[in-house]
Amino acid sequence: MSAGPVGKQIQSIYRDRLGQFTGGGQYESQNLLAAMYEGRASGEEHVKLSVYSPPDLARPTFKEATSQGFKSTRIGESFGPSWSTHWFKVQITVPSDLQKKDHLELHWDASNEGLIWTEEGEPLQGLTGGGERVEWILPKSFRDGKEHMIYIEMACNRMFGNSPGGDSIQPPDPNKYFQLQTADIVAVNLEARALFVDFWLIGDGAREFPGDSWESHEAQQIGNAIVDAFIAGHGSKESIIECRKIAQKYLGDKVDSSKVYETDTQPIVFAIGNCHIDTCWLWPWAETKRKIARSWSIQCDLLDRYPEYRFVGSQAQQYKWLEQLYPSLYDRVKAKVKKGTFQPIGGSWVEHDTNMPSGESLVRQFLYGQRFFESHFGDRCTTFWLPDTFGYSSQLPQLCRLAGMSRFFTQKLSWNNINSFPHTTFNWVSLDGSQVLCHMSPAETYTAEAHFGDVKRSVSQHKSMDQDATSLLAFGKGDGGGGPTFQQIEKLRRCRGISDNVGLLPRVKMGDSVEDFFARLEKKAENGTKFVTWYGELYFELHRGTYTTQANNKRNNRKSEIMLHDVEYLATLASIKDSSYKYPKKDIDDMWENTLLCQFHDCLPGTCIEMCYDDSDELYAKVFETGEKLMKEALSTLGFSREVSAQQDIVALNTLPWHRAEIVQLPGASSKTPEYALIDGNMGIANIMTLSSSAKSTASIKEIEKGVFQLSNNHYKLEVEGGTITSLVDLTVNREIIAKGGKANQLVIFDDKPLYWQAWDVEVYHLESREVLPAGRTEILEQGPHRVSVITETKISERSWVKTTISLAASVEDQPSYVEMASEVEWRENMKFLKVEFPVDIVNTEASYETQYGIMRRPTHYNTSWDMAKFEVCCHKWADLSENGYGVSILNDSKYGFATCGNMMRLSLLRAPKAPDAHADMGRHHIRYAILPHAGPLDSRTVRTASNFNHPMRLLASASSSHSLLSSITLHGSPALVLDCIKRGEDDADVSRGEFARSTGRSVILRVYESLGGRARGEIRVAEEVGVRRVWRCNLLEDDEGEVEMRRGRAEIELRAFEVATFRLQL
Ligand SMILES: [Zn+2]
């Protein structure tokens, strides 16, 4: 019986009321926030501050900094400019009235990042600033009324660098100052803090569960009951405890400990802490090194405080920096790795781009990564972890498998802005048929805040629930580092409490590893669950500008890869020839590690701030300098010299594993009358034959009408008008290659303003703005019998121009002949995209593009939104459009962006984004590309010629008479097989840097792949002087997997389509 009238609660009013209890603003002094702190002390008497500000934006070590003079400072002072560092001596004296309080913290906030150090120089914990992660728990020993000292290293940047305003991708403001607002000792009411989280999650239940669910109504009732109890008790300590008891009705009684997870119910969402530290992005590497210490020290602290908590850390490079720069913190991490709570993951050197690195680079990301993880922590990784990279190339599953990883985690495809990727958990199949089990977090982020909604979305956005409904929830602050906060871990406990106590919310669990998660899926697959498959690349429908932005950086990447190829080949042979020659493993490792570092998923894609490219330029310069030195030393051991003086002593070095015959310009002669030679030879030393003007194959040029030039050799006859090729006839088959009315080598420019991410994106509508660049005068540049060329200057704008040389060399016997273009570009544009077009008379609905260890076929039409989404794609050294019987390949040197639309092939040359680097790509560029028409199908002619095009032969002076060693290891048989790498074994006794006790004696590693997509047979031949005893098939990590029979220096091999095979020759 009701004592009087009772009204129905208006749901929206009682729900909105909940916000009052924990919100800032007009009720803050009356609500739970007012009860959060029981006391506060600051000022000279309790928190005495002095500072040392190193000059010139230096980042001194603890020792260097603390040995300097400190001068007094106080709250309210500002520190800067951007990127500067300030070391604070913080002398803490806890006042007597706070000494008896339950829990004391130092709160420090200058809206920038910081790291707390002990007086002795141990890094303790990172600080984020701006109200986030500002607290450090004072040790009990500080409550003795005496003065205690710590240091705080302040970095004048926020988590996302130093952007001028709210738009974090704008170029950094170099002159930002940061005010120290808070440096207080604070007594925290821990029950109030816990109630805050209780109430947050109960409020989420009221707001986010369906309005017609009893679970939502219940949450609303309990939330209001808590507010009522707090008001009735005037916010006293006792009333807060009462409020928490009420909260238990919704959350259960276990949320204050990890016991909340120890129930007999089945979890479905597996939460794992992670902190995505971009190795460089809106800050330089030097800052990343400190971000690692700040982030991982916090995580160690959280692992101590929360027994259920697990954290994954990727990128071997970051561990290596930690080990070098913060050895005690590294030891702390290592102890936690041993305990199993801090979990190394990923197996790669950095979280790298996967579109542009070469096949061998991808291999080395894994080789260097896995070797680091195994040598430092005892185990290799089994999961390739790449949450943020911009698309995933088609051979990754095969390479993962060969590097000991059967699992792959990402989520980036959730950013697709055209099609929604249809799977969450699936088998990803590479070109050769290899598979890895892939999981894309349905929460669609790797920086989840561990909100109620993240847990909910882990089921509501799960796309593979017909096979398995479980998922990973990767939570923690990220991109700029940080990682999970204690609030996030507390929230997850309450989410689980709600699931077990009320239901409806997916049941989350913490305490498992990513490996546990995948192991369960693999078990399911073994027991018959058929996961959906996805064949080929995981094309990312966004960030397509990253194939082109920061051209110089991309060029350095390809040149480094080529140089490393040559260095390893020559050093291997030198070490076989001469036992006193020491294989330069350390230098080679340094070259590789630097190259791999620059392949980080913001660096190589071109999406960093300008400072990062100053850094990468420096690293690449080091790579080239070391490479030249190593090359010189190895060549000298092999009997050659790089100093070419007199022509008659010259030989040419062919480091590619096939026969080459090319007309090459000899050095020394003036450029007015260049002297040419025919270089002809297999891998190793090639002969140089000087060419007389009476050679039987020649090139010729004539102006057939005013401004129209005809260039020809035995293969082609082409007409150039206005800098474009209006006709290109293949004389061998009498066929016109240029589409009717089309102009090849036509430079075109596009307006390039993507929706937001400038350096990252080129958006589909840029195609509407195509503008043809009108060419200026064309002149004959060269008119010799061996090579002819014309040069055309094209004005882009008042500030920018292109000078393009189109040249044709005399054709050589049966070698493919191509038309070469070399451009010099002065580029000063603003948000424009420069491309060059090749309309060809070829019909096909698919074009082919070189990718790592294979060929990617993509549509040339826009039938479906999936086809259209690929309006700009990545290629390596060539792209090809072929029909039955004939095709055209476009070769490039150091470019990666391409598009084929119908019969229009378009190579992307330069972009001009203004964020985050305001000067990206401004200045002078040298660009080379070529048209290689071919009768018959796409085949090894394209693969080889494109390699040759990127890989000019070196001229050497020869001192020795025998060059046989240079061609002592060769591959014969199918031309589809490519011997892509020759190096020494990582663990060879005379090579190893001692990471492992194991030894492989002396060995040579060969990497071979099938390049065209079909089964292929070949034979490895090794000359007697190399002294091979046995041959092993091995994986990328150089573990033997089976012996290959070798007879009289010959071993037969067979590879399936697009297979990558590694062989170890035991000497
Ligand atoms: Zn990232």
Automatic annotation (TrEMBL):
Stretches assigned to the Glycoside hydrolase family 38 central domain: 541-620
GO biological process, one term: mannose metabolic process
Enzyme nomenclature, EC number: 3.2.1.24
Top-level taxon of origin: Eukaryota
Gene Ontology MF: a single term: alpha-mannosidase activity
Record key words, sorted: Glycosidase, Hydrolase, Metal-binding
Keyword Metal-binding attributed: yes
Catalysed reaction, written as an equation: Hydrolysis of terminal, non-reducing alpha-D-mannose residues in alpha-D-mannosides
Cellular component, GO, one term: fungal-type vacuole membrane
Keyword Chloroplast: no
Coiled coil regions in record: none
Family annotation (InterPro entries): Ams1-like_N (IPR054723), Gal_mutarotase_sf_dom (IPR011013), GH38_C (IPR041147), Glyco_hydro/deAcase_b/a-brl (IPR011330), Glyco_hydro_38_C (IPR011682), Glyco_hydro_38_cen (IPR015341), Glyco_hydro_38_cen_sf (IPR037094), Glyco_hydro_38_N (IPR000602)
Main function: Degrades free oligosaccharides in the vacuole.
Similarity section: Belongs to the glycosyl hydrolase 38 family.
Protein name stated in the entry: Alpha-mannosidase
Organism: Lasallia pustulata
